[in-house]
Amino acid sequence: MPRLLSTITKVLRGLKFSVGQSYIPPKDRFAEYGEGTVLVSPIVAIRPENIYLGDHCYIAGDSVMYAITKKIIIKKYFVAARGLHISTGSHERRVGKFLGQITEAEKNHDIGLDKDVIINEDVWAGFNVSIMAGVTIGRGATLAAGAVVTRSVPPYAIWGGVPAKHIKFYWSIEQILKHESLLYPEGERFTREELVHIFNQYDD
């Protein structure tokens, strides 16, 4: 899948320079397209009817969102640098068939190769980040440039590498509590107990 997305990106770059513009589906083709959200050309959104974009999101060019059978759900104030790749699917390997012979229609969807991707509020993705099927990105997380995210990321954490791993939490628990008290209604904030539990799962 990463190779396929890389090929699509290269084709897009060629179109951009040869034609001078690139296609982005109209806003009404998306399942949801939030107020103030901006997609910068060139971008490919495969099956935009399965893509939900919250308010005030910004996704830079050379990006691909691949949502053939499952959903991409991006909540408000997500920001991504150039080269974002999000995929809700994966190729199937089958005895007696070449990888490229198995079409999307023939793929066995009962074995869980395709899964939703969920990106929560206030997430930052650096240059050339790839987010793979089944991943949930926690609120306020930072994904370092070049990260390949294959498992879910806790809130307010910095993850990087190939595959991406926990580096550290961006703020202390006290800073997160203050930050959320200024931005989120009381019922939507993390409690101290929840944050302590999350922090205790990772060694900083």
Write a short abstract of this structure.
The protein is of the alpha/beta class and 204 residues long.
Key words describing this protein structure:
204 residues, alpha/beta, seven-stranded mixed beta sheet, five-stranded parallel beta sheet, 3 helices, 17 strands, 19% helix
Give a description of the structure.
This protein is an alpha/beta fold. It is 19% helix and 23% strand. It is built from three helices and 17 strands. The chain has helices spanning 2-19, 173-183, 192-200; strands at 32-33, 38-39, 43-46, 51-53, 58-59, 63-66, 72-74, 79-80, 85-87, 117-119, 124-125, 130-131, 136-137, 142-143, 148-149, 157-160, 165-169. The longest helix is centred in the N-terminal third of the chain and has 18 residues, at 2-19. It is globular and about 55 Å long.
Query: Strand-and-helix sequence, N→C?
Result: HEEEEEEEEEEEEEEEEEHH
- Name the overall outline: globular
Physical arrangement of strands within the biggest beta sheet:
2-5-8-11-14-16-17
Cα gyration radius (Å): 18 Å
Helix content: 10-25%
Name the structural class: alpha/beta
Strand content: 15-25%
**Major β-sheet, in short?**
7 strands, mixed
Q: What integer is the average pLDDT?
A: 88
State the distance separating the first and last CA atoms.
32 Å
Detail the poorly predicted runs. Answer: 14-21
If helices are DSSP runs of H or I spanning 4 or more residues, what is the number of helices? 3
Number of strands: 17
